[in-house]
Design goal:
- The complex is a heterodimer of chains A (about 260) and B (about 240).
- Chain A has helices at about 15-25, 65-80, 110-125, 145-160, 165-175, 220-230, 245-264, and strands spanning about 5-10, 30-35, 50-55, 85, 130-135, 160-165, 190-195, 200, 210, 235-240.
- Chain A is an alpha/beta fold and about 260 residues long.
- In chain A, the strands form 2 sheets. In chain A, strands 1-2-3-4-5-6-7-10 form an 8-stranded parallel beta barrel, surrounded by 6 helices. A two-stranded antiparallel ribbon of chain A has the order 8-9.
- Chain B is mostly helical and about 240 residues long.
- Chain B has helices at about 15-30, 30-40, 40-45, 65-85, 85-90, 95-100, 105-110, 115, 135-145, 155-175, 215-220, and strands at about 190, 200-205, 210-215.
- Chain B has a 3-stranded antiparallel beta sheet.
- The longest helix of chain B has 21 residues, at about 65-85.
- Classes of the chains: A alpha/beta (about 260), B mainly alpha (about 240).
- At the A-B interface, α2 and α3 of A face α1 and α4 of B.
Chain lengths: ~260, ~240
């Protein structure tokens, strides 16, 4: 089965370029990042909606705040989203709220158990598969499990699917000096249902960062091609691109993704 | 010495998992906590009621890698805040997000309960609760830190902050799921001089700014009470 190609949608200002991409046959679905405002209706674009959020901290010792999950469930049910994308993350030191971008949890057995428990509970609440994603890594501790083993272990224990974010993975191996493709065999291929593709950038301090304003580089695109072979169960490939970046770049990125998928 | 974060959560009554989660997040954002941990990790672990064994799962907080992650996160918050308060921050010489991210003022904000405690923030307009955006956290913190509600405060700071914050609040009315923001549907007000009824500033939904004195101004204070920026508190019951 050939995976569908989609793009991440964060707010209505993106809809015009998404509409044009749909007209050109470039996008098969939109991945909507919740929460969204009451006046936004991404379903008006007329393509399937895949629900996603980075505001449920599945690894939090405080458990989950279900206000956002309720909003996601309603939209996912209405759209028939095949799964709901979630993050193994912390967001704040408190039972609710977020300080900014997702924070990777410490990769301990304790948080593996907490993450599994929260993921199971959320999947039960949604009555729909949950697909788990992990954020970009900057450091590792010697001798401990790596983020891919952690992700796979939680997904297995909670019986969840997996989203492999290729940009996050590349940022992690570049920052920690690991070889390309190392650790990818830790992921159960039957659970990997979606790949995320985005640009990366190197900061002035030499460290790499996820960069949705940039286009995927050659290494990212080659990794996409190879991951489609490693994980034949992938059903969706999602391009993540900032509204602030030019529309031409948005179309170029999707075309490059489609080209790589044809070569896979 | 930069203080550790002003945490409203007490260690007692929480599990080790809660406490290590809090400590790690503070190491990312709070300079005082990071400096203290770098100097004496066991003392900080003890303060957070955590066993020494947790030292092996925490990163080297002096490493370039950890500092890169911490820096990236602070810049992300600074970007969000600077985009909303460019004039307020520009008056303080913080004309770019990077200068804000490395400033002493921002370090104080990140170490405050206004940043860490979601109950200190206003509700998120999209109906998911408090503490999910840094705009109201920063505005309410700066109002408190610089005592901008007191007579004799720095008026330019007060008016600049309130003007930029009112623009944010009014912009949420149309799209908000949370009914908290309905109180701003006719605009936002504040007294020109704190605690004085001599003159009132009104920002309308179309972002016109009026200064009304005498009877005209006094007339607004009653009907606009819930939209008065001096009265907005983070723990107001949601309407």
């Amino acid at each position: 089965m050939i995976p569908l190609v989609g793009a991440r949608w964060d707010d209505a200002a993106q809809s015009p370029r998404f509409g044009r991409a749909i007209d050109f046959g470039l996008i098969d679905f939109i991945e909507v990042n919740f929460p969204i405002s009451r006046s936004e209706d991404p379903t008006a674009l007329g393509v399937p909606l895949y629900a996603h959020t980075s505001n449920n901290p599945l690894s939090s010792a405080h458990g989950l705040d279900y206000r956002l999950a309720q909003q996601v469930r309603i939209s996912a049910d209405a759209a028939g989203s095949p799964w709901i994308g979630e993050h193994l993350s912390w967001l704040s030191p408190a039972p609710s709220g977020a300080l900014g971008y997702v924070i990777n949890p410490l990769l301990t057995r304790e948080f593996e158990e907490i993450s599994s428990r929260n993921a199971r509970a959320l999947q039960h609440f949604y009555q729909r598969p949950v697909a788990l994603e992990f954020g970009p890594v900057y450091w590792t501790n010697e001798g401990e499990t790596n983020e891919l083993e952690f992700l796979n272990s939680v997904a297995t224990r909670a019986d969840c699917a997996i989203i492999l974010d290729i940009a996050h993975y590349l940022v992690g191996i570049r920052n920690t000096g690991r070889r390309p493709y190392s650790g990818l065999d830790a992921l159960d291929p039957s659970r990997v249902v979606e790949l995320h593709v985005a640009g990366t950038r190197r900061g002035s301090d030499g460290f790499w960062h996820d960069a949705h304003g940039a286009l995927p580089d050659a290494e990212t695109l080659a990794m996409l091609r190879n991951c489609l072979k490693l994980y034949p169960g992938v059903r969706a490939v999602t391009f993540e691109h900032d509204l602030a970046a030019p529309e031409d770049a948005f179309f170029e990125g999707i075309r490059e993704i489609r080209n790589e998928m044809e070569l896979a | 010495m930069t203080p550790l974060s002003v945490s409203t959560a007490t260690p007692e009554g929480t599990s080790e998992a809660h406490r290590i989660q809090r400590l790690f997040i503070e190491l990312l954002f709070v300079e005082g906590t990071r400096e203290a941990y770098a100097r004496d990790p066991l003392a900080v672990l003890q303060r957070y009621l955590l066993p020494r064994s947790y030292r092996s799962v925490l990163p080297d907080v002096t490493s370039a890698a950890f500092l890169a992650e911490a820096r990236g996160r602070k810049i992300g918050v600074a970007r969000e805040v600077h985009a909303r308060f460019p004039n307020t921050l520009g008056c303080r010489g913080l004309c770019e997000e990077r200068s804000l991210a490395t400033s002493a003022l921002f370090a104080r904000f990140l170490g405050s309960s206004f940043f860490m405690d979601p109950e200190r923030a206003l509700p998120h307009p999209y109906g998911i609760g408090r503490g999910y955006e840094n705009i109201s956290k920063f505005a309410l913190w700066l109002r408190d830190a610089e005592q901008l509600r007191r007579p004799g405060c720095e008026l330019d700071s007060r008016n600049s902050l309130y003007l930029e914050f009112s623009i944010y609040l009014i912009a949420q009315v149309k799209h908000a799921r949370d009914t908290f923001f309905e109180r701003f549907k006719r605009g936002v007000i504040w007294r020109t001089w704190p605690q004085s009824e001599a003159a009132v500033v009104l920002v309308t939904p179309s972002l016109k700014v009026y200064r009304l004195s005498g009877v005209e101004g006094e007339r607004l204070l009653g009907p606009f009470a819930s939209a008065d920026l001096d009265a907005i508190e983070s723990r107001l019951p949601e309407s």
